[in-house]
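Please go through this protein, sequence plus C-alpha cells, and consider how the sequence yields the C-alpha cells. Keep your notes short.
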Amino acid sequence: MDVRKDEFEKLARENKDTIYTVCYMFSKDRDEVADLYQETLINLWKGMPQMKRDGNVRGWVYRVALNTCISMGRKKKSRPTVRLTMDVDPFEPSDERTTQVGMLHRRISKLQPFDRAIVLLWLENISYDEIGKMLGISTANVSVRLVRIREQLKKCLTINLFRRL
C-alpha cells in the first residue's frame, strides 16, 4: 500500500473533528459543510509535502481548513445561487441547549472570515500565541481582535433583544 495514502488516512482520521468544526463555522447548512469538508481533504492531500516542512501538523491542518473555507466563501459570493426550501426542517433543534448553540453559530457566522477564524481557534482553547502563529499576526493583535469581536457580538445581541421587544 502507498505510504503517502496511509499517512493521509491517518491525518484525516486524527483531525476529522478539527476539520469539521472549521467547516461548520463557515457554513449554514449540512450540504455546504460536507462540500467544505471534502474540499479541505483535497487540499490537505495536495499539501502533504508542505506539511512535512512545516512541522506543526495541527496548525497546518487548521490553516488549510480555514483557507479552504474562506476561499470557497469568496467563490460562493461571486456565483448566484438558488436555494431550495422545504416547509418542514427535519433537523430543527428542539432542546434549549441546541437552540443556544444555533444562535451562537448564527452570530459568529455574521463576523468577517478572519474574525470567525480567530473565534473558532479561541473556542478550541488554542493559546493566543499559537493563534497568532497560525494566522500570521502578533499575540497582541489576537488579544485586541478578540476584545473587538466580543464587543461586536455583544452589540449584535443587544440589537436582537431590542428587535424582539
Notes: The mean pLDDT is 80. Residues 139-164 form the longest helix (26 residues). The CA atoms of residues 45 and 140 lie 33 Å apart. The radius of gyration is 18 Å.
